[in-house]
UniProtKB/TrEMBL annotation:
Residues 1-62 form the HTH asnC-type domain. The keyword Transcription regulation applies. InterPro entries: ArsR-like_HTH, AsnC-type_HTH_dom, Tscrpt_reg_AsnC-like, Tscrpt_reg_AsnC/Lrp_C, WH-like_DNA-bd_sf, WH_DNA-bd_sf. This is Transcriptional regulator. Keywords: DNA-binding, Transcription, Transcription regulation. SMART domains: HTH_ASNC. It comes from the Bacteria.
Length: 151
């Protein structure tokens, strides 16, 4: 990956709907070499996909929570089953294995408190869940959709 590839990634993170011709013009290449570089970045998974950033409030998602989850069992098959169950829960939009006093940190969204309560019931039904702690997000102060430029 060279400086031009990094520039391509930087521009696409901000404006993913650019045509190849517009991207080429923006980075100072002709369309053919730009298209080849773009294809290589996709093939090598530097670019994992393209998506739209959806306004949560406009689609009825008014609440966000951060949920700390501790597991009672750290056997591999339990962890695999837990993570599979999480991946099937639409409310979970991000999940991380973390170090510290709990095992997972989840970002969960819901249209309302009743929806969140239903989610916690599902979570508590998982046999490997020992404990959960919830933090309600009062207000989002930063929302970045791009990686830092030191990549």
């Amino acid at each position: 990956m060279d400086k031009i590839d990094r520039h391509i990634l930087e521009v696409l993170q901000k404006e993913g709907r650019l045509s190849t011709a517009e991207l080429a013009e923006r980075i100072g290449l002709s369309p053919s070499p730009c298209a080849r570089r773009l294809k290589r970045l996709e093939d090598e998974f530097y670019i994992e996909g393209y998506q739209a950033n959806v306004n949560k409030a406009k689609v009825g998602i008014t609440m966000s929570f951060f949920v700390e989850v501790s597991l009672s069992n750290h056997q591999e098959e339990s962890i695999i089953a837990f993570e599979k169950a999480l991946s099937e829960m639409d409310e979970v939009i991000n999940g991380h294995v973390v170090s510290g006093s709990y095992d997972y940190l989840l970002e969960v969204v819901s249209p309302d408190l009743n929806g969140y309560e239903e989610f916690t019931r599902k979570l508590h039904k998982l046999t490997s869940v020992k404990d959960i702690h919830t933090h309600l997000s009062v207000r989002q102060v930063i929302h970045k959709t791009t990686l830092p430029t030191f990549m």
